[in-house]
Fold Extracellular solute-binding protein.
Amino acid sequence: MHTAAVPGIGDGRLCRGGRDVEGHTETDGRIARQQSGEPSHGGGRIMGQSIKWMIGLGVMATLLGACGKEEKQPAPEATVMDRVTAGEPVTLKVWGGDNEQVFQEQMVEPIRRKYPNVTLEQIPLGGNTLEKLIASGNTPDIMKATKNFMIFQVIPQKMNYDMTPLIKKYGYDLGRYDADMIKSMQGFSDKGEMYALPHIKVVHSLLYNKQLFDRFGVTPPKDNMTWDEAIQLAARMTRVDGGVQYRGMDMQFYNMIASQLNLEVIDRSGKANMSAWTRPAELFKRLYSIPGNNVAIPGTIARVMDPFYKETLAMVVVNPGPMITASKEYPQLSWDLATVPTYQELPNTDPYMNYTFLGIAATSKLKDEAFRVIAHLNSDEVQIGFNRLATPTVLSDPAIQKQFAADIPELKGKNVEALFKHKQSDPYVSVYFDNTVDTLVRQKFNEIITGAKDNNTILRELDEAIEKNIADKKQAGQ
């Protein structure tokens, strides 16, 4: 059941009576390439025509005005004014990992158009840990980061703030969001509190080089393949031709193949769980033991995409954002995408859910004002703009979802629907999982590739190493 929209917050429904608004707003089209786990990579803007945005926004404003008459009246408590809606000058500090161009396009400009009295100042995430900011007294009002930062920094530094009272105060409708993302965010609290709102969705796909498949006379990948089928296809595509080594398949991170089964590295009791990874370890070994395809885990998007750009890698499981950005840089590259391969016993399941969140810092003295800003950045108006420029929306409205990449001519005719066909998994991430544990797992999975030891031995040794790491952290009071 939808609650009433609130003036100034605006849940942004665009004529839910069935009218489809083709809006244009702002963003640079990156697919959530911000922080942690999804390394940020440069690249030119995909679409940046300010005039086009302004015209689109003008049209949208007119339509929204017409739609507004169809909305219910806000609840009495939702009409309480704050400095943002009262037009008073307000400066809010944002802690996040965007470069300056993305920060301006995805945050500053949308807010300036809606609330010209609001100034957003970014505190760059790089080097500025929350611990350092607290110590210096330079704390933010709004936090923008990928979800693992909630575990690694926000909650440990007690900067998490439950937004539920503000959600109720303003009659804000969480039903507009992808329900699994809301559940994921509530999972950070034993009480189901909302420490932030999802803002930008991260998606994954199987990219493939169409020219290589044509050249070698092999049928290209299709949606809903199993890992068994994909590995067989990788074996057929791995070869030396004309003195060049061509590889069949690679993947961005080792945990992609395990997260589909919702397997944790460290379980909720704080115990290492790698002994449960026998199935993904077996598939991982099969893929990377293909002669000519046995390379170390790249670990970053840049490294895994480089051979794809050079057309020596046929398929790659990855966040497709860099490829979308690089389409203009590599116009000769004929590529398309399919769904990520799945386990036969668990079809229609993608790798781990990830997203960028917007949260309010517990120390902020401008919580209402911060909420107004966050609400607008997640309005239909702004989310449509993101989505049309290939930054996937976190909203559940099919009318918005179907507009994905509509303003990106390089994606015309490509199978972008594959990005949304599967449900994303959401394995538990322990507070003890950090870069040191990640490095341990990465090193041991590289041992699987070399075949120096059997998988069971490697997983047992990994459990032992992680257990020692956890014990050391506990002894150090972490």
Remarks:
- The CA atoms of residues 17 and 70 lie 9 Å apart.
- Residues 205-352+427-475 form a domain with the D-Maltodextrin-Binding Protein; domain 2 fold (CATH 3.40.190.10).
- The two ends are 43 Å apart (CA to CA).
- The longest strand covers residues 244-251.
